[in-house]
Amino acid sequence: MPHSSAIAPAIEIRGLHHRYGAREVLRGIDLQVAPGQIYALLGGNGAGKSTTLNALLGFLAPASGTVRVCGIDPAAAPAEARARLAYVPESVALYDHLSARENIDYFLALAGAERGRSSVIDPALEAVGLPGHAWDKRVGGFSKGMRQKVAIALALARHVPVLLLDEPTSGLDPKATLEFNALLATARARDVAILMVTHDLLSAVDIADRIGFLAEGRIEEERTAGPTGERFDLNALHARYANPGVAA
Ligand SMILES: Nc1ncnc2c1ncn2[C@@H]1O[C@H](COP(=O)(O)OP(=O)(O)OP(=O)(O)O)[C@@H](O)[C@H]1O
């Protein structure tokens, strides 16, 4: 699995502090994701997961610390940082009256990216496994899983090196979750660095290369998958996740 620590991280957060008013919600986050690596960030409600994503998206001016997306500071140069990433929120925003192909074409045009149908759009839809009969259907009738496929196809078509996902599997049934994880594997094989905020331990265990536990504004612990074949211990992780501050 291509996640050598020798590769420069595409996502790099060091010593990140952030406060809302008097309340310090991030208290020294350290987190790196290399190209071709999937990092699952777990944490209870209010732990600071969305705030961390917002820092990468350039929506925050951190009190202190370093945030870099492919070497770019998103607070100082948000447009440059966002040109290198795709953000997939829990509920994917698409134009419901447009088809899958038309949505991708439209967003590629907005991004100023190359947008040939046969050279760019169709290969991306093929890569994410959206059935051909759905390509020209209006996405208004698509399931959550199908909308995610369109969003990831757009990310692949844009060739972004970084993918940020906010609770992507919430509300997906187990089959759709497996399909979603297969999408992530496709992006990982293209050397995309993937940061996934999630409460879904099963999905994280299935697909992540590294799992970080965020509590009280800090990464309390990270666990890394072993070489091929060795995966995470689900029971130990569940005990860890349910009891922040207590080693499993
Ligand atoms: N704009 C804001 N102003 C003030 N406080 C905020 C703001 N945004 C978030 N917070 C607070 O900061 C803390 C961290 O919030 P954040 O949304 O990052 O947590 P989270 O880990 O994503 O939680 P959840 O799993 O519930 O989405 C919470 O206590 C939240 O109430």
Automatic annotation (TrEMBL):
Q: Which SMART domains match?
A: AAA (SM00382)
User: What are the UniProt keywords, alphabetically?
Assistant: ATP-binding, Nucleotide-binding, Transport
GO terms (molecular function) for this protein are: ATP binding; ATP hydrolysis activity
Statement: the UniProt record of this protein carries the keyword Nucleotide-binding: yes
Q: DNA-binding: is it a keyword of this entry?
A: no
Q: List the InterPro entries.
A: AAA+_ATPase, ABC_transporter-like_ATP-bd, ABC_transporter-like_CS, ABC_Transporter_VariousFunc, P-loop_NTPase
What is the protein's name according to its record? ABC-2 type transport system ATP-binding protein
Question: What organism does this protein naturally occur in?
Answer: Sphingomonas xinjiangensis
